[in-house]
Amino acid sequence: MSLLVFGHRNPDTDAICSALAYADLLQRTTRPDAVAACCGPPNERTEFVLRRAGLAAPKLVMDVRPQVEDVCRRELVTASFGEAFYEAYERMRKGDLRAIPVVEGRRVVGVLSILTMMELFFVDAADSTKARAVTTSLQKICEVLGGEFRNRVEPDRSDELLVMVGAMSAEGFTERMQRYPRERLVVVCGDRPSIQLPAIDAGVRAVVITGGFPLASEVVEIAKAKKVSVISSPFDTVNTTLRIKSAQFIDPVVERDIVTVPGKWTVAEARGVVERSSQPVFPVVGDDGGLVGLAFKSDIINPPRPQLVLVDHNELAQAVPGADEAEIVEVLDHHRLGGGLKSTQPIRFVNEPVGSTCTLVARQFRAAGIVPTPAIALCMASGIISDTLHLRSPTTTDVDREVLAWLAGQCGVDLERYTREFFEIGSALRSKTPADVIREDCKEFSENGVRFSISQIEETGFDLFWERKDDLRAALEAFAEKQRLDFAALLVTDVVSNGSLLLLSKESEAFEDINYPRLDRSLYALENIVSRKKQLLPLISQLLS
Question: Which residues pair with residue 442 across a beta bridge?
C-alpha cells in the first residue's frame, strides 16, 4: 500500500496544496511511494491553482478503510473440473497455496483444498476394488506420466478405472486379474511379456509399460487387434503407479457449497463472514461475479493498515473516514490540537502557529536543501495566499512572509497579479447551491459538549450574500439537522474590507454575549474577523464556556 498524504474533509486550497507539495517532497526524499490524496473534490479556486501550476488534483479517496480487493492476492491460481489431481497440485505447490478456487470461465463454482484432495489417495484399503479405483481418462494418464501411446483406443473417454500392478508370477497375475472387470483394468508392468500378453489377450482397458522399455512390434499388433491401449511410461513401476493415481479427476472432492467475498466489501464487513467459516480460502469476486483475487483468513482478520500523513488538520473528526483504523505516521499542521488522535508508537508531529500549512511544507523543502519545481512552488504559494488572505489575516506570521517571498522567486509568477486573479475567481455564492456553499470549506468541532460546524468562504463584497441570505440560512439548518449538530455556522469573509458576516443555523443563549452587531436573526457583523482558526473559533469557544 502507498503512503497517502491527506488534507482535511471538504478541503480548501491550503489542504490540497500542502498535500500535493508534501507528497512531492516525500517522494524525493524518504518515501517514493507517497501519494497526495483528498477526501473531497477541489473547489473552484483550487482548480484555478492546479490549472496555473499544471498539476493534477490529488487522488480522490473518500474512505481509507481497506476493502477486500485491497488486501487480497491478485495472482489467480485456479483449477477447473476435468483436471487431474497432479495438475492442480503442481499449481498449488508452486504458488505455496493450500487451497484454490475452481472456476468455469471466470465464475467461481467451488474450492479445492489439499486436505480434500487427499481423499483421492487414501480410501478404504480393506476394499481392494475401491483402493484400486481411479476416475480419469487414458489421455490424462498419459499426460501426467509424460509418456506416449503405442496404441490408443478412446483415450478421452472418462472411466472409473482399476489399477493393477503385474509384479507377481504369470499364473498368479492371471488368476488375480479374473477377479475384476477386465474392461476397467489398467495393468502396470515392466519389460515382462509374460504379463503383457495375458493382459492384452484378456482385453483389459490399457497396459502401461514402465521404465521406458520398448514394446515388441508383434505385441503392439496384438493390442491393436484386441483394442487395448498401450502407454509407455518413463518412470519405474512404483512412480508410474503413483502418477496414475494422481491422474484422477478432482471433480469428486471439489467443495461446491462455498462462501465468496465481494471485493468492494470493507475488510470489517468481510471479517464477520470469514471468522464464522471453516473454508480454507475465500474467492474474491467483482461486481460481475467474476473472480478477481484470493483471500485467506489472515488477510481479512489481520490486514495491513493503510499509512497516512495528515496535513492541515490533526483531529479525527476532520480526517478522511477510516483514519481511526489506519496507521497515522506523521502530522503537519497549524491548527489547535484536537481530540481522538492516537498512535501505537512515536510519530513525527509538527504543529506550529503559522498562517498556512504550506508554510511548514516549504520550510521542510528548505531544510532538506531541495528546491521545489516552479509548479510545486506556485502550489505552496497559493496555499499561503489563500489561508492568510495574502498576508492580511491575523494568523499571518513573519515566517509566512519570509517563506512566501522565497517561493515568489521559485515559481516564476507575478504573485501580486496572480493573487488578484485568485480571489476574483470562484465565488461560491455566484456558482454554487446553498448546500454546496455550506460544504465547500466546512470543519466540525466539539466544545464543552456542544458539536458544531464552521464553514468559511471568501468573497469580494457582500452583495451576493444579501441576495441569498435566506436560502443560506435554510441550508445551514438542514445541514445541522442531517449531521446531528447543535448548530452550523457560515463565515462569509470580504477580502476587500477585511471583515466578515457570521450566519448561524440557530442561536443559543451563549450568543447573547457575542458583543458584535446583530443584523438579523442569527446574523452578525464581525468587523476585522477573517480567521476561523485564530479569531472565530476562540470566540465561539469562549461563548460556549
Answer: 455
How is residue 42 written as a grid cell?
Answer: 477541489
SS (H, E, C) 442-492: EEEEEECCEEEEEEEEEECCCHHHHHHHHHHHHHHHHHHHHCCCCEEEEEE
Shared-domain flag, residues 442 and 524: yes
Which contiguous run of DSSP H or E holds residue 104? strand 99-104
C-alpha 403: how far from its chain's center? Answer: 38
Residues 407, 326 share a domain: yes
Could you tell me the CATH number of the domain that includes residue 162? 3.40.1390.20
User: Of 319, 309, 359, 341, nearest to 40 (Cα)?
Assistant: 319
Residue range 52-92, pLDDT digits in tens: 999 999 999 999 998 999 889 999 999 999 999 999 999 99
Instruction: Tell me the three cell numbers of residue 357.
Output: 500549512
Q: Tell me the residue range of the domain where 379 lies.
A: 3-66+305-424
CATH number at residue 20: 3.90.1640.10
Q: What beta strand segments (E) does 33-147 contain?
A: 34-38, 59-60, 99-104, 107-113, 133-137
Sheet containing 261-262: order of strands: 261-262, 282-285, 291-295
Task: Write the DSSP symbol of residue 79.
Answer: B
Number of structural domains in the chain: 4
Query: For residue 444, which of 312, 313, 317, 314 has the smallest C-alpha distance?
Result: 317
- Shared domain for 313 and 417, answered yes or no, is yes
Could you tell me which residues are beta bridge partners of residue 453? 444, 488
- Residue 172, pLDDT score: 87
Question: Do 201 and 267 belong to one domain?
Answer: no
Q: Which amino acid would we find at residue 62?
A: M
**108 and 145 inside one domain:** no
Coil, strand or helix: which one is 34? strand
Q: What is the pLDDT of residues 117-154, one digit of tens each?
A: 888 777 665 667 778 899 999 999 999 999 999 999 99
Reported residue count of the chain is: 545
Residues 274 and 229 in one domain: no
Instruction: Give me the CATH number covering residue 265.
Output: 3.10.580.10
Same structural domain, 329 and 389: yes
Return d(Cα 374, Cα 54) in angstroms, integer: 10
Q: Are 438 and 488 in contact (CB under 8 A)?
A: yes
Q: Where are the alpha helices (DSSP H) in 118-204?
A: 128-132, 138-145, 170-177, 193-202
Contact 317, 340 (CB under 8 A): yes
Residues 240 and 126 occupy one common structural domain? yes
Q: By mean pLDDT, which of 148-162, 299-313, 387-401, 425-439 is the weakest?
A: 425-439
DSSP secondary structure of 254-290: -B-S---EETTSBHHHHHHHHHT---S-EEEE-TTSB
The 3-state DSSP class for residue 369 equals: coil
Element (H, E) at 374: helix 374-387
Check residues 497 and 143 and name the one with the higher pLDDT: 143
